[in-house]
Amino acid sequence: MGLVRLQFQREWRLLARARSEALNPLVFLIMTVTLFALALDGQAQALSRYAAGIFWVLVLLSSLLSLDGMFRRDFEDGSLEQILLLAEVPFLPIIGKMLAQWAATGLPVVLMSPLLGTVLQLPPEALGPLAGALLVGTPTVSMLGAVGAALVVGVRRGGALLGLLVLPLYIPVLIFGTAAVNGLAAGTGGVAQIYWLAAMSVLAVTLAPFAVHAALKISLENG
Amino acid sequence: MNGLKTLWHRLGSPRWFYQMMKPWQTGLGFVALVALLVGTVWGLAFAPEDYQQGNSFRIIYVHVPMVVLAQSAYMMLGSAGFVLLVWRMKMADVAMVAIVPVGMTVTAIGLFSGAVWGRPTWGTWWEWTDARLVSTLVLLFLYVGLYALREAIPRAESAGRACAVLAVVGLINIPIIKYSVEWWTTLHQGATFTATRMSMPIEMAAPLIVNIIGAYCLFGYLVLLNMRTELLRRERDTKWVGALRTEVIDGV
Q1: Of A56, A89, B238, B246, which sees the most CB atoms within 10 A?
Q2: Is 60 exceeded by the pLDDT of residue B184?
Q3: pLDDT bucket at B118, cuts 50 / 70 / 90
Q4: What's the pTM value of the predicted model, to 2 decimals?
Q5: Residue at B250 is within a domain
Q6: pLDDT digits (tens, 9 = 90+) for A178-191
Q7: Which of B148, B154, B161 sits opposite A164 (nearest CB)?
Q8: Domain-embedded: residue B93
Q9: What is the ipTM of this complex?
Q10: Is residue B111 in a domain?
Q11: What total of structural domains would you count in chain B?
């Protein structure tokens, strides 16, 4: 556990010092939400009807921005190699890194979501479900995204490839996330979808570190 | 048990594989040709017309084999990826190289023929709330992703193992994706037949079964062809390929 905590702290400190990098996805999300609200201005009805879906898509897209740099910095300065060389259970620091990544990019989105949801004309009763669904859904996004990021870390212009690799894998999160928000807001159920999101997150947190570890080893051999 | 072990080791030898699979490839190609010819002519010309869908139902003789194959191919791909990651068997990588383009094409044909069939049957080309349509589309994306990832990584060995990781992650995800889309009420009719139950008269089903067998044989033929070609490419500097080359030149 010590390794997880240490890596988490290191990562957190690095992200706090490179603030623009960490906040980039959030700024992107705010910008695109604003653009959607502007583009569909005057049609508040339509906007509020599709807001949950739009918001989830934008969250998934914005996650790509931060994932691209997730391992790249450590890859370039060689510290990634040192992490993998740790003799005992090398995926513990990787878990720490992934959790820090989520805390720095997923959590702010959860916290900002009531405000951004209001911008998208979501009714007040949908804001709680939106934040809740994001809270249990975004870990899956971070974990699956980390697998993709680890695969393309050594590839030039990997960012474009990253989207192709991970967006199809995000589809269940998008479906359950949107259905949960719409269902809970309309009072027609949606708790089951929240459970599904939580189950997928648990599964992703459990299995993804292994895949990330394998992918990073491959990428390092390549570099 | 011992024989199995020997076979496993032999499978790892490119030269043995190249030579042993030659008759298999020819045989599968021949069976595929005959089965597809018989099944298609039978299905398109002689099978009875559907009392509801008329002649348009006949596209299942193309559509169903392709879609069934698309999923099987991905299962094989995922298994090959697993074998490559766990036992580092190079032949599994060769198999993955061979399967991806075939699987991608088959999935694309399956999607296209399904859309063409859907138009007269349900009055729509595409239905986003249908689990099977969407999960097949995702399957196509996964194939494209695997193809692109291999192209992007210059070193062949790393590319193969990176693809293996992605293939295994995709294998875990496919049932989740399918289940998630099934949440909505679905428009797609239930599976036409399963191993135990048939909802189709035998005169209609028989050509379909023949075509499915034919499609699997065609798949086997194409994969073996790709694998053997890839083996020649990878082993081009070895003695046995050199001997093969002189043989061909002498023959001419």
Answers
A1: A56
A2: no
A3: confident
A4: 0.86
A5: no
A6: 888 988 888 887 88
A7: B148
A8: yes
A9: 0.83
A10: yes
A11: 1
Range of the domain at B145: 27-44+57-188+204-237
B153–A154 C-beta distance less than 8 A: yes
B14 in any annotated domain: no
Residue closest to B131 by CA, chosen among B179, B91, B81: B179
- B177 → chain A, closest CA residue: A172
Answer yes or no: do A144 and B169 touch at CB < 8 A: yes
User: Which residues in chain A have their CB less than 8 angstroms from residue B144's CB?
Assistant: 164
CB-CB neighbors (< 8 A) of A167 in chain B: 141
Interface of B with A in 100-119 (CB under 8 A): none
**How many angstroms separate the CA of residue A148 from the nearest CA in chain B?**
8
Distance in Å, alpha carbon of B150 to nearest chain A alpha carbon: 11
* Record: contact A164-B141, CB cut-off 8 A: yes
Contact partners, residue B116, CB within 8 Å, separation at least 6: B59
Residue B85: closest C-alpha in chain A: A214
pLDDT band at B195, cuts 50/70/90? very low
**pLDDT band per the 50, 70, 90 thresholds, residue A69:** confident
Extents of the domains making up chain A: 2-222
